[in-house]
Amino acid sequence: MKFLQLITFLFLSVFLFNGCDEPSKKNLSPTEIIADSNLDNHSYANTNQIRTKHLHLDLDVDFEKKTVYGVARHEMENFGADTAIFDIKALDIQKITLGKGAEKETDFMIGRWDKDSILGQPLLVKITKDTKYINIYYKTTEKTEALDWLSPELTAGKTHPYMYTQGEAILTRSWIPLQDSPANRLTYSAKVKVPKDLMAVMSAKNPTKKNEEGIYEFEMNQPIPCYLIALAVGNLNYRKLGPTCGVYSEPEMINSCAYEFADLSKMIRAAEKLYGKYQWEQYDLIVLPYSFPFGGMENPRLTFVNPTILAGDRSLVSVIAHELAHSWSGNLVTNSSWDDFWLNEGFTVYFESRIMESLYGKEIADILSLIEFQELEAEMADISKGEHPEDTQLKLNLNGRNPDDGMTDIAYTKGAFFLKTLEKEIGREKFDKFINSYFKHYAFKTINTEIFVDYLNVNLLEPNQLKFNTNDWIYKEGIPKNCLKIVSPRFEQVQLLADRFAAGEDIFKKQIKWIKIKGRKKKKKQIIQLTRDKYIAQEWMAFIRRLPKKIDPILMRKLDENLNFKNWGNSEIMNEWYVLGINSGYSDIRPYMEKFLMKVGRRKYLAPIYQELAKTPDNLKWAQGVFEKAKSNYHYISSSTIEGILYKKK
Ligand code: BES
Ligand code: ZN
Would the pLDDT of 27 be above 80? Predict the structure, then answer.
């Protein structure tokens, strides 16, 4: 950077923008500066003045240095701005050039971190009113939060390293310098260099085989919000599961994947029948290593999945229905800020439930929804008692807070029950038509809650002269009184069984039954005993939840002897069982729980276990010991949450 240029730009920037690293007299925060050029509280980008239309990434993934070296080539739509503001978080920016072909270096400034280090830093680039191409040369650092670098021991094959990214909500800025707001949609392409024995896949058109050079090219030609840009690199195999779908995983897991996801094609067809054509051509899954902090992540064309979904009995495939549903709600119609997160997740949970109903029947879908509703009630009670009871509204105000705070069952399940209740009031036929037209109307657009409410009024409520308490659902706390109540005889039956067991009945006693056989006079004697295949996994979940919170450990042991909850295979059940076990002082689970905590990095499981352990000094000490050993197996998203629980930082 030329000295004179630097001085002028410094002067201009300090004048225009006071959030740089040097202490400044004027107290304008970066957020204030961008306040009128961006409506997203969680991004510094001035997308109203200049926005990325297309992003090309040149990436070199270096496993030895655990660093991604990159050039982010932004093709901009410039409305006359002379500064472009990007989001970055712990990135090392090396140089920035303008132009395509003939590039010219330009000046840039990096602003101060926000108070809680949530947003990262604004990156100001000096441009002119007709600048169209901005190229940012950078590398990731040790502190890059989106990336998970795994040594071979943490993979299924134990022979090759692995790396994957997680962008949602605001971590994409930690591995790519960009305008990290869901309000802007962009297309992207990429050229990624990886070690020769590994394969790279992205949320884009993907290879199905390794190539000799270790160089892979990608294209995503449909505009997406940037939290959906994703990359995974590992020793990958591909298995086709249908005409337009398949699964990637390490070779060691590919057969279990093919078994578990055998219904994938049917799911896609069911979803299309409900809400219109799948818009992304191909739908693949990639089953990542256990450290992946979520159950699933809806990266377009390539859903990322946690291997805990491989229960061995297809009992957790609703997660796939969920991520597939995001191909409409979330990826096609996107929340414009994290305050509107329920538009992504509430619609998706509703849609997921409809897919499950189409494939497996209403009885199953109802049981799944009831399980979720119980979780909603518990979380609702927690949030209502906490510091932010207003977080039980669907529309949130997360200004100044981590968007993660809004990622609760409120958005998911209250959101879904809002739609289920609406469906009941208006009738399924009209409601489905409405949802279909909603997805069509806003396809590849980004909307907020207010736009949805308008659309609902004009296209569904008014034409049908229906009065509905939409505002209570969206802008008030708690669960409105008219919320749909699901009645499931199967659910009730298994709860009754739990009550009988807790009251001392021997539910495992062998019983003799005489059954009639067709064409024979004599009845046949059959000995029946309660075994795990009598109920589906979610019914067993309901069973465990119904047991007294301080159940006698002797009873827990009896259940384990007969059903082996402690080592069941379905991680939802194991998770539920461990939490109950800690609370009841059932020490038999410790070795199993430790194994689970060492292996699984999914935050939804880790957080409740560690939270329960943190309640007594003895357990807390043990938990801290386990965490210290396990934390290198977790993604930053999980380890930072658990650190907050065990060391009370948060
Ligand atoms: N989009 C979410 C995951 C997410 C949410 C990542 C917020 C980062 C921030 C994904 O679709 C999801 O909801 N996953 C769930 C599974 C689902 C069946 C409820 C999960 O991972 O538990
Ligand atoms: Zn989701």
Answer: no
Assess whether the C-beta atom of 635 lies below 6 angstroms from ligand 1. no
Handedness of CA 348, 353, 359, 360 (dihedral sign): positive
Residue the block writes with tokens 């009841």: 584
Cβ of 347 below 6 Å from ligand 1: no
Query: Which pLDDT belongs to residue 522?
Result: 86
CA 492 vs. chain centroid, Å, equals 31
Q: How confident is the model at residue 483 (pLDDT cuts 50, 70, 90)?
A: very high
Q: Whose CA is nearest to atom 6 of ligand 1?
A: 168
Per-residue model confidence as pLDDT tens digits over 133-178: 999 999 999 999 999 999 999 999 999 999 999 999 999 999 999 9
Q: Which of 228, 297, 413 to mutate to test the pocket of ligand 1 (most atoms within 8 A of CB)?
A: 297
Q: How does strand 50-62 pair with strand 185-193?
A: parallel
> What count of Cα atoms within 13 Å lies in the side-chain half-sphere of residue 254?
15
Concerning whether 360 is annotated as a catalytic residue, the answer is: no
Residue 153 known to be catalytic: no
Ligand 1 centroid to 508 CA: how many Å? 37
Q: Peptide bond preceding 169: is omega within 30 degrees of 0, i.e. cis?
A: yes
Mean pLDDT, all residues of the chain? 94
Ligand showing the shortest atom-to-Cα distance for residue 348: 2
- The residue contributing the CA closest to ligand 1 atom 18 is 319
Task: Give the domain-ending residue among 451, 475, 499.
Answer: 475
Strand partners, 108: 125
* CATH value at residue 200: 2.60.40.1730
Task: Tell whether 95 and 217 lie within a shared domain.
Answer: yes
Which of these, 93, 47, 42, lies nearest to 72 by C-alpha position? Answer: 93
Token reading at 275: 């809400």
Q: Among the options 323, 345, 379, 572, which is catalytic?
A: 323
Say whether both 93 and 226 belong to one domain.
yes
Could you tell me which residues are beta bridge partners of residue 224?
Answer: 186
- Sign of the CA dihedral 602, 605, 608, 613? negative
Q: How far is the CA of 534 from the centre of ligand 2 (A)?
A: 30
The residue ranking higher by pLDDT, 525 or 407, is 407
**DSSP collapsed to 3 states, 322-365:** HHHHCCCECCCEEECCHHHHHHHHHHHHHHHHHHHHHHHCHHHH
CA pair distance 410, 417, nearest whole angstrom: 10
Expressed in angstroms and rounded, the spacing between residue 294 Cα and the centre of ligand 1 is: 6
CB of residue 346 inside a 6 A radius of ligand 1: no
Domain boundary among 235, 253, 275: 235
DSSP 8-state class, residue 631: G
Q: What pLDDT score was predicted for residue 29?
A: 44
8 A C-beta contact, residue 596 and residue 340: no
